[in-house]
Amino acid sequence: MLAAVEHYYGPLRRGRVICNARDPDPYRRAARAYKKEPIILAAGRLWDEAKNIAALDAIAGRLHWPVYVAGDERHPSGKDAQLVGVRPLGKLPPDQLAQCLGRAAIYALPARYEPFGLSALEAALAGCALVLGDIPSLREVWDDAAVYVPPDNRDGLAAAINALIAAPQYRAEMAARAAERAARYAPARMADEYVAAYRQLLAPSSAHRRSTSEPAISRSTASCGS
Prior knowledge:
Distance between the termini: 57 Å
Number of domains: 1
CATH class: Alpha Beta
CATH topology: Rossmann fold
CATH architecture: 3-Layer(aba) Sandwich
Strand order of the largest sheet: 3-2-1-4-5-6
Largest sheet: 6 strands, parallel
Radius of gyration: 24 Å
Helix content: 40-55%
Number of strands: 6
CATH superfamily: Glycogen Phosphorylase B
């Protein structure tokens, strides 16, 4: 996202990337409390084209496991999302969503646009294998800890999910990679980086110190001369 800002608005003198974070405890507790079930889970506004839930809906009948989706079904215009293949759970409170993530073996987010993807982080902390949209921001966050599919490749999406379903060892390996990668997005690290950014912003630059100190010297000299 920093690269995108610099591309459209020009170079920044002091650009800084601070990744989001989640408290891992609720999701790890859910992973311990529940045995993984043959469930594919997705989360996000069902009507949001950026989340691309429609792609999951279109291929749900070709998948060997059911697809459940947690999220708001109603568009701000008042219309409900028209999805027939996935099983909507509605908008869930955080504790219930954590429980669903603890039960799901696969989490799918075939996003067209996603600056970071907090729901994928929650899923990884809960022990899910990740299937994500092949976009730069998600690759940056997850590297080799997820399976990637171009958002418009619905055949590829079905094949990737069914491959994870058919190979329990592969699925467990990808879930372990995701959990390990998720550990780096810790709240303490995010907080430390924000504090460092605030300190940098609050500290006057050397140029600013010179510009504010020089007039004071001039006024002092003039006063002595008078």
